[in-house]
Amino acid sequence: MDVELTYDMVGARLRGIGGAAITYDQLGSRPRTLGSWTLEYDRLGTRLRVVGAAEITYSRWANLPRTVGQWSCEHSRFASRLLRIGPHELRYDQLGNRVRAIGPLEIFYDRLGTRPIRVRLPGEGESLPDDLLLALFLVLHWEEEQEAAAAARRG
User: Fold this and answer.
1) Which of 5, 23, 90, 135 would suit a FRET pair with 36, their CA atoms being 20 to 30 Å apart?
2) Residue 58: what pLDDT?
3) pTM of the predicted protein model
4) CA–CA dist 20, 96 (Å, integer)
């Protein structure tokens, strides 16, 4: 089964994963809903804390996600990338820049290789299972945050 990822007219913001629409706050900077799930942030509005019923915890010093609901998150030795979210292992391209798969879910990018445009899940069905939808959204969201932070550091 193939699931399309849709973006706004400028192509900057992810607007949907298959049938799950993503809405943003009034300034358009932070996702507020994913399908029927509400997204909540910390007091400063900087870190995603809740998606639906799944609470997200972060490490104290490195600001890395530690848990998502009942799932634990595993990071590489120097915390440069996420290796696992719950039961789903992440696989990266040869350079280690882009996530190419989350568990059984394969991710395809646009011609420039910068934006995910489609995911494939072996088998039949019309939508992603909730656990894979959650994992995919979080991985894409955290990658986008890392890219924005790196761009801000560059200047």
Assistant:
1) 90
2) 93
3) 0.93
4) 28
